[in-house]
Every structure is written in C-alpha cells, then in structure tokens.
Amino acid sequence: GQNIDQPTEMTATEGAIVQINCTYQTSGFNGLFWYQQHAGEAPTFLSYNVLDGLEEKGRFSSFLSRSKGYSYLLLKELQMKDSASYLCAVSSTNAGKSTFGDGTTLTVKP
Amino acid sequence: GAVVSQHPSRVICKSGTSVKIECRSLDFQATTMFWYRQFPKQSLMLMATSNEGSKATYEQGVEKDKFLINHASLTLSTLTVTSAHPEDSSFYICSARKHPREGATDTQYFGPGTRLTVL
Q: What is the pLDDT of residues B57-104, one digit of tens each?
C-alpha cells in the first residue's frame, strides 16, 4: 500500500514564499505529482517528479528525494488566487495508479 | 494540449434511478481512464481503473455492480451509478492518461468533475 502525509492546513501572506511538504511510503515508486484544486473544481496538474532534484516552473517549484520518501512544493510570490488545496499524489508501477494525499489547504492572506 | 471533458457537470436525481456520466479525452487518445470520488473536504478516492477494450479494475470496497464502467473507445469512458441513493451524492471526477504513441507519461489529466445529488 501507500501512505502519504502532508499538512492539513497552511496560511501565508501575499507576496511571501510557502513550502508544502509531502512524505510518502510506497512500493514500486513511479513518480510524484502535485495538483492544485480550488473549491468545487477538479484538480489541475502542477508538476511531476520522477528523479531526485528540483523542478522549477515559473512561481512553482517541486523537489523530490526518493531515498527519503520526501517531496515539497514551493510557491513563490504568493497571490490571493493561490488559495487552494494542494494535493500530493504518488504513482506506482501497479497499473500506473496514483494515490492521493489528503491535501493541504493553503490560505493566502493580504 | 490535453483536455478532458465530463458530462453532465451537475445532476440531481431521485433515489433509485440510474445516472450515466461520460468522460472524454478531446485532443488525445487515452488507453487508461481513472474514476475518482471526492466527498466534501476529503481527498480523491480512486474507484476504478478503466482500460479500453477490457474490464475495469475496481478498488477494494467499490461495488462493480453498482458502479458500471464502460471504456468503449480510446476517447470515451462512462460511469453509470445504478440505483442511486443519497449516500452516493458526491463529486465524481475522471482522469485520463495518454496512449504511449502520444508520448505518454504517467500524468493524469482531469475532467472538470460531475456533482451528483441524489434526493
């Protein structure tokens, strides 16, 4: 099975930087995804890491350490619209299924 | 691009009726589609994996006779909730993964979701 842990809630200030951590335990690791989900909407893809290291994409960056079973999503220059739930998902070699964490609800305040 | 649509976006039905939800990949072929259910303030729970041309694989605890899945083509999968009850009210979301010949990765592209309310 897979266990995925991420903080339930985080609060940050507009313009600041926030880091959302995700730890996981899995057999047959095949990549880690980060998705953003606004209330009442479906998730949207943010990033995918399969090798160790940092992937940067604009204001968002994602890091992976496979040996530590650890990833983080880094959001820079926070905007009010970044208030959302951020889901960490781990893909396994078992039919390519992904298991989602419970999500981290980020609230950006002025 | 990788656009996935779902229809309907919202449905309200009476208890005991059946509801069909369609999931389409609009600009790519998808060998695999996934069906998730999400209750308020909870994460996505995988219900089943749908592969074109074969039977769906259901997760433990999901009744295959209640949630019928048909993956008729490389761009269409349907989920039918049979004899729906109020406890089936939820947000149903599908996702699709690209066919290998389209440069597939494990990235799942999500549809916009269908909100089902059973009265």
A: 999 999 999 999 998 888 999 999 999 999 999 999 999 988 776 666
pLDDT digits (tens, 9 = 90+) for A84-109: 999 999 988 766 778 899 999 999 99
B64: Cα separation from own chain's centroid: 13
Dihedral, CA of residue B73, residue B104, residue A52 and residue A17, to nearest 10: -70
Is residue B97 within 8 Å of B29, Cβ to Cβ? no
Task: Decide: B61 and B74 in contact? Cβ < 8 Å.
Answer: no
> What strand order describes the sheet that includes A3-5?
A3-5, A18-25, A70-75, A60-65, A53-57
Burial of A57 (0-12, 13-18, 19+ CB in 10 A): exposed
Q: Which of B44, B49, B51 to mutate to test the interface with A (most CBs of A within 10 A)?
A: B44
Interchain CB distance below 8 Å, A45 and B34: no
Which residues in B lie closer than 8 A to residue A95 (C-beta atoms)? 32, 49, 57
Structure-block tokens of residue A55: 């992937």
Distance (Å) of CA A109 to CA A21, A53, A104, B60, B73: 20, 30, 16, 40, 46
Which chain A residue shows the shortest CA-CA distance from B38?
A42
